[in-house]
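Researcher: Before we compare anything, I want clean individual predictions. No alignment, no superposition, just each chain on its own. First chain goes here; please echo the sequence and then give the structure tokens.
Model: Echoing the first chain and its structure:
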Amino acid sequence: MPSKLRILFRTRWFHSFLYHFIRLYSLTLRIRVENEKGWMDHLRSGGRVVLCTWHQQFFAAIGHFQSYRDFKPALMISKSSDGEIIADVAERSGWHAVRGSSSRGGKEALRKMIDHLSLTGLAGHILDGPRGPAGIVKAGVIELAHAADAVITPFYTSADRAWYFNSWDNFILPKPFAKVLISFGNMIKLLPVEDAIAFERQRLELEKTMIPELRVKPAGKSAHM
């Protein structure tokens, strides 16, 4: 990438533009939400909730997830230059960005996520981000849920019309005015574990639960990015 573009992408002006563009883009989507009440009632009654999804599906939920800003939720975002842009957009959307990932600064970021979730009650987590492999649940969400005594609530998005990127996860971008479904799964309460085998069993069980909702790129549909 040319250095001038790199500098532009790091400016507050560009981040502001991108935030407002995403907001306007999201307003064109015709969103329907399913099964939200259960975890919301749990949260409002003093429980803690970790909302989690696959990396390929998070964009369609950005507009609706701004409605959770009063809960001051946290989200872990990588320390990469792309992550800097995403973190700024997340902060403008009312989400607290905790910088770190499994490959860089993960332990410190997880501690901050645990502290924030314990305080506010709500966090989001991208299970296979930021670099995959797609459809593989990383251990962080299990550690987070145990440490903060939180339930895990999977969510999935789908669109009747969308572009699929040629990325590691076939990232999905709903087309303008597409019908989008945000569907929340049932809350998952993890039992205490005494060893690494039981911990891994929980990770695999979450993966098994969510893998059927990983979207496969239809033949011939791609954004070529």
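Researcher: Okay. Second chain, same rules.
Model: Second chain and its structure:
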Amino acid sequence: MRDFLSERIHGIDTSEIRKVFDLAAKIKDPLNLSIGQPDFPVPQPVKDAMIQAISDNRSGYTPTAGLIQLREAVSEFLKPKIGYEAKPENIIVSTGVASILFLLFQTVIGKGDAVLLIDPYFMIYPALIKYHEGRQYTIPEHFGKAEVDVLREQLKRDGVKLKLIMFASPSNPTGKILKRDQLQLLSDIAAENDAIIASDEIYAAMDYEKTHVSMASVDAERTVTLNGFSKSHAMTGLRVGYLAAPERFAPVVQKMVTLQQYTMVCSPHVMQWAAITALKTPIEAELALMKKRRDLVYGILSKVTKLPYPDGAFYVYPDIPIDSAEFVTKAIERRLLLVPGYIFSANRKSIRISYATREEILEEGAHIFCKMVTEYS
């Protein structure tokens, strides 16, 4: 039978997270600690803005780059965080950060282009590198000058220059927030390679000790900032994300907009109006709830295993004594749904646990996890 699939698509498989979602539908009363989605509702002011937009018949196409009102609001929102005013014409709105990532990689990454990731990394990043036939380099999340120097030597030995540095802070899967001195090291290596820095800040609002530093405040000239509303305002299925760039990368943004004309077309009209309201809607109560859950889960897990302290987001990433694929399979037998660490890292002995769920589920799931760690140690 003829294989109608293109050569490049063979390298892309269904994500392990989606496989876990599918399993959850088949298990009776699962303890689902896999899902990267807030369990609180969309804030009422944001819902009201959606309803008003529907009532006002705002259902047609928007400009491809996004509503000018939203791009102006994003510019104002980012200014105190990144230290400069991103022009609305250098901002693109799309159907979530995942779509922004696809547009960015399609626009700037070609065969053989070198991309730096911080390990562990969000699973979409290496998939996009592979799809676009790029070359992946990594440094560990705890990196300092020594690790960056090793990277320099590796790049020199391979005779390549980085074209893109891609990371999320706070991190998915660890919740770690990169420190300013680490951001400066990334700025230095970007300057040496004349690379773009893509700072994925989708979890920036989930910053429990207020330690997050936006990469663009360290290197405004080379940083494009990605963010959205899925995690902060529980708008996961409503699909609004954006990228803001300095003037230097205006041609990149314009090519992304052109590509969007032929792909996503535009983010949902109604949801863009809701996003304007979301930018002005605080989430203190939701943050307090998530912080309480973080402290609960970290307190239980840290007694039996090592894990990075989660500064933000809503994940923990504990070590386990056996391969993460085997651990996840055995956990399913106990109704516990987790995400294997190997999809985020070359290290196969970690697990991602989401604490974006009710405390009684977290406690039961965490105790099952701890029992398994003890059993398999």
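Researcher: What stands out in the second chain?
Model: The domain at 59-278 is CATH 3.40.640.10 (Aspartate Aminotransferase; domain 2). Additionally, The chain has two domains: 8-42+283-376, 59-278.
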